Amino acid sequence: MRAPLGDFDIVRPAPEALDLLVTPVAEAVRGWSGPGEADELVHVDTDPEWADTATFLEHYGPELHDRSANCVVVAGKRGGETTLAACVVLSGTRVDVNGVVRRLLGARKASFAPMDTATGETGMEYGGITPIGLPAAWPLLVDAAVVDLPYVLVGSGVRRGKLIVPGKVFAGLPNAQVVEGLGTGV
């Protein structure tokens, strides 16, 4: 099998790579009910040493820059209550946490969630968080630019490996809201 984008040695449909995924991601793939078929989600094996976006692109090719996305966990606070949410933006942009995210969550203050909160609540590894398999109640904010791409490279829940997902899939994930301008220039 050849990856729909990039040049990777080990490529397979995500349902054939369940043993390489963390439990919440493997369960989401196994019980896939999103748009399209689970086999459209492609797992590519990558070295965990290169998991962070900048080093990943340097190692695997800068041509992936405009076709990769980051999934980050944010915390919105209002009146002593905290709402956790995930945001998916193209890797060349930053999440507009203090503007767009804060307003959409109805929060007085919003910030990136601490690493131990992000990993503890998602069951995923830092540097590999993916929107597939997130806690069901969380809002998922997806930049419109991500949805518009034919395929997007995103984390797989662990630092080793990535998922290549049709952009349209992100709009159909649980609690997804497509947002214009969620990602801002770096």
Automatic annotation (TrEMBL):
CDD domains referenced in this protein's UniProt entry, alphabetically: PA2301 (cd04939)
Q: Which domain of life is it from?
A: Bacteria
InterPro entries the UniProt entry points to: YbaK/aa-tRNA-synt-asso_dom_sf, YbaK/aa-tRNA-synth-assoc-dom
Domain YbaK/aminoacyl-tRNA synthetase-associated, first and last residues per copy: 56-166
Instruction: From the Swiss-Prot or TrEMBL record, give the protein name.
Output: YbaK/aminoacyl-tRNA synthetase-associated domain-containing protein
Q: Which organism is it from?
A: Streptomyces alfalfae
